[in-house]
């Protein structure tokens, strides 16, 4: 069984739509679903945003399903000016002996990723984080999920699509109001109330949100390609089996 984790439902929407014979499972720390892609058995988890939630969700996911590989898929921000929105990359600093085989051949660029405790929403913050970590991208979950996977001997890969450029100034408070961090559901009432008192954030929020479907589509296409190819080159773990 192949494990796919997303921080929020928005990231997972297209992938879940492609999944056949879906069955949702009850869980306290994550939304869990199983299904099939062709002849591949797949388990999907919505683990939540941020280190702590993602760690709890991943722990429950891996306890409940004996996956032979875990792919964390989702959004990331650029920490360097030359990296553009829509680019796809794997986190090179979290590849292991098993997962490195899946991306050999150079079809997906490898970039270093840093995991932050909050959204890094401006060039100054991105520049500082890049200098401190040497990373190219930033997200809020990879480090935590990789640590859980490593502790269980499960090969791990973080696949990311860039949703915000280095120069972007994100409306961090509006984004926080818009999405519920546990599962990533949209909160229209909270967002409306926030924007009513912070109208200057409407434009930047719209620019960010309008690109997300395109970014998600690119991510999903690459993820589907990866899953379909895992049978040929994917590694196995000690607690696995299809």
Q: What would you note in describing this structure?
A:
There is one protein chain. Strand 8, helix 3 and strand 9 form a beta-alpha-beta unit. The protein has helices spanning 9-18, 51-64, 123-133, 142-151, 172-178, 188-197, 202-233; strands at residues 2-6, 20-25, 31-37, 40-46, 69-78, 88-91, 110-111, 113-115, 137-139, 156-164. The longest helix has 32 residues, at 202-233. Strands 1, 2, 3, 4, 5, 6, 7, 8, 9 and 10 form a ten-stranded mixed β-sheet that branches. Helix 1 crosses helix 7, helix 2 (51-64) packs parallel to helix 4 (142-151) and helix 5 (172-178) runs antiparallel to helix 6. The protein is globular. With 242 residues, the chain is α/β, with parallel strands linked by helices. It has one domain: Rossmann fold (3-Layer(aba) Sandwich), CATH 3.40.50.1580. It contains seven helices and ten strands.
**Largest sheet geometry:** 10 strands, mixed
Q: Quickly name the level 1 CATH class.
A: Alpha Beta
Secondary-structure-derived class: alpha/beta
**What is the first-to-last residue Cα distance?**
5 Å
Task: Give the SSE layout.
Elements (H helix, E strand, L loop, with lengths): L1 E5 L2 H10 L1 E6 L5 E7 L2 E7 L4 H14 L4 E10 L9 E4 L18 E2 L1 E3 L7 H11 L3 E3 L2 H10 L4 E9 L7 H7 L9 H10 L4 H32 L9
Parallel strand pairs: 1-4, 1-5, 5-10, 6-7, 8-9
Antiparallel strand pairs: 2-3, 3-4, 5-9, 6-10
